[in-house]
Specification:
With 441 residues, the protein is α+β, with helices and mostly antiparallel strands. Helix content is 52%, strand content 9%. The chain folds into three domains: 171 residues, Beta Polymerase, domain 2 (2-Layer Sandwich); 84 residues, Hydrophobic Seed Protein; 167 residues, Orthogonal Bundle (cca-adding enzyme, domain 2). It is built from 23 helices and ten strands. A hairpin with a 2-residue loop joins β5 and β6. α16 packs across α19. The N terminus and C terminus are likely disordered. The chain binds adenosine-5'-triphosphate and magnesium ion (MG). Adenosine-5'-triphosphate binds next to α8. The site of magnesium ion has 5 residues, from loops.
Length: 441
Amino acid sequence: MIDSKESKNISRLKITPIVIPRSQHIISRMQINDNALKVLYRLKNAKYKAYLVGGAVRDILLGRRPKDFDVVTDAKPEQIRELFRNCRLIGRRFRLAHIQFGKEIIEVSTFRAPHHISDKNEGQAKDGRIIRDNVYGDIDDDVWRRDFTINSLFYNIEDFSVVDYVGGIKDLEIGQLRLIGDPVKRYIEDPVRILRAIRFASKLNLKIHSDTEKPIKDYSNLLENIPSARLYEEILKLFLNGHAVETFILLRKYNLFKYLFPQMDQLLNETQKNYSYEFIMRALNNTDQRINEGDSATPGFLLAAMLWEPVRILSSEYISNNLSEVEAAKLAGDTIISKQISSTSIPRRYTHMARDIWTLQARLKRTKKKSLRVLMHPKFRAAYDFLLLRAQSGERLENLVDYWTKEQLDEPLAGKDKPRKLGNRSNSSYRRTRNSRKKDL
Ligand code: ATP
Ligand code: MG
């Protein structure tokens, strides 16, 4: 394990990395996206160093298809811009180049030196958080600022070798997630690394190294100071990556779910493993299934599910105070959302969608009257799927489900959303996931 003191010395000594030649690893240019290759080659031809780094190298080595391709170089942002017409410089904390190819963006960053090995602590707040990160360096500086060893492997376009300074290859082989440097310092610098640890552990099925795991308990409260917009971005990465069920289980295990959905977390703690747990697990399983089958999954539905139990409970309070079901759902939705956005921001279009789904739950209770208007509501399909999830999770809604299933068959134009797959298949695979994970619960 390399701690920050050692890494400082090591970095000064310019340690020699392990270089794995092309003949000894499985990364071929066939697996690298054409646009990323174009960027790598153009940088190389202009006599800059250029490497593929991060998730793409890691995922290809694991035999997975990468989500995106990140490039790192010794060219400065302005020099990158000179090379690419389709380039935009972005970011305040890090200045990055985005090279745009149609809808696809290849992110190119310049080698930077880390803060935990710089003496001056420039760019760091008094509490150790990184506030600026623009000290340029070389590859052997850049490696130490990265989070996990498995995310710090560099694929060199010059000779197609993989460069490993931190033992990332070995960690990949043994399925281990390990922070580079002193874990406590690394979490203080950027507490979001705690959530990243959970994300990579669940998505890649890795074991978190004990040194990386230990401080999570004592330092997770630092997540309270993370800007709500950044936490929202993390929520999307955590729950829309096809492994939401495992991620949720790990977040609960490490008591981290409360930083993302505090209202739901509290209810889960009060009432162990009941309807609300069942409901969330089913909603997440359904989301995973959609993503793994190549369908889209909207954050609006996810949000509606994650906040449903607090909305349901508050609605019934309002109803007992003589509000109509629809009014109660609207008011409860507004109250729960305004509490939620003090933890994580949420774009308006998704809060609107969640509200629609919740109020439609009340409107779906009124059968016979105004069926057609409900059926034609653009969020009817999502609301119907939501109703199914509720029924499958233990609410006694069979009659309503039957009614709206039949109404839809009679009205083929009902709803505009693509049907969500909630049939038996989703149930059985849910059971599989649950059973295989039971030991973790
Ligand atoms: P994904 O598959 O989710 O894209 P990734 O590892 O590529 O995973 P990114 O968020 O795209 O993750 O970041 C790219 C790389 O930048 C990471 O692999 C890591 O080396 C570095 N990095 C990103 N976020 C941090 C962070 N908070 N602290 C240190 N290094 C980071
Ligand atoms: Mg990435």
